[in-house]
Design brief:
About 20% of the residues lie in helices and about 25% in strands. It has three helices and eleven strands, in the order βαββααββββββββ. The radius of gyration is 17 Å and the shape is globular. The structure holds fe (ii) ion (FE2).
Length: about 200
């Protein structure tokens, strides 16, 4: 008798740690906290965001801070590597922006439209920071209630962000803060879309 276990339809996520040095993270945090920015409708509460379809944050950071030389190229390479494993060639970074969340703020669940691959680069986070919550895209899981949750039945996955973490995921996956409020002083993340 021969048995074969086949795990159908997985979702690819890359999780890197220590993508940037503490000095680089500090430079980005200083920038994000000091520049003027607006609001993003994905957030509830005290936040600021530089989101726009035409925002090129990582290119601008690299231009303005010598310590961040190579930032755009380095992050692009990681996203291209993800894309190749995922099945896409010719991927390019399209836009990037920062989000600052203050205590009590919530990131609503959302998808990144008009994008194939997205990245979240955590610039400043601690144990009080809200998690990155990714929803299982299988809509039929709500019909069952297993005795034991397994990799086949988890309704979501959560990452407790640490400064320097980079998480790459498909832009279509619904994500947010899991309906939990951020409790850290300034939770700073750079978001990147690539297509
Ligand atoms: Fe997002």
């Amino acid at each position: 008798m021969e048995k074969q276990v086949i795990k159908l339809f997985p979702t690819l996520v890359h999780h890197y740690r220590e993508v940037l040095s503490p000095v680089q993270l500090a430079a980005i945090a200083t920038h994000c906290l000091s520049v003027e920015a607006g609001q993003h409708r994905a957030f509830i509460g005290d936040t600021k965001s530089s989101f726009s379809r035409n925002s090129h944050l990582i290119e601008n950071l690299e231009t303005n801070y010598p310590v961040l030389k190579g930032l755009h190229n380095g992050l692009s390479k990681l996203m291209i590597g993800y894309a190749l494993e995922y099945g896409f060639e010719g991927i390019q970074v399209k836009n990037s922006w920062f989000n600052v969340q203050r205590p009590g703020s919530v990131l609503k669940h959302h998808v990144h439209t008009d994008s194939k691959i997205s990245a979240a680069l955590f610039v400043q986070a601690d144990a009080q920071s809200s998690k990155l919550h990714l929803e299982n895209p299988n809509p039929f899981l709500n019909y069952i209630r297993p005795e034991n949750f397994t990799e086949y039945t988890f309704e979501y996955a959560q990452f407790q962000p640490v400064a320097g973490d980079l998480i790459l995921f498909p832009s279509w996956i619904k994500h947010g803060s899991g309906f939990e409020a951020n409790l850290s002083k300034d939770r700073i993340v750079i978001s990147i879309n690539a297509s």
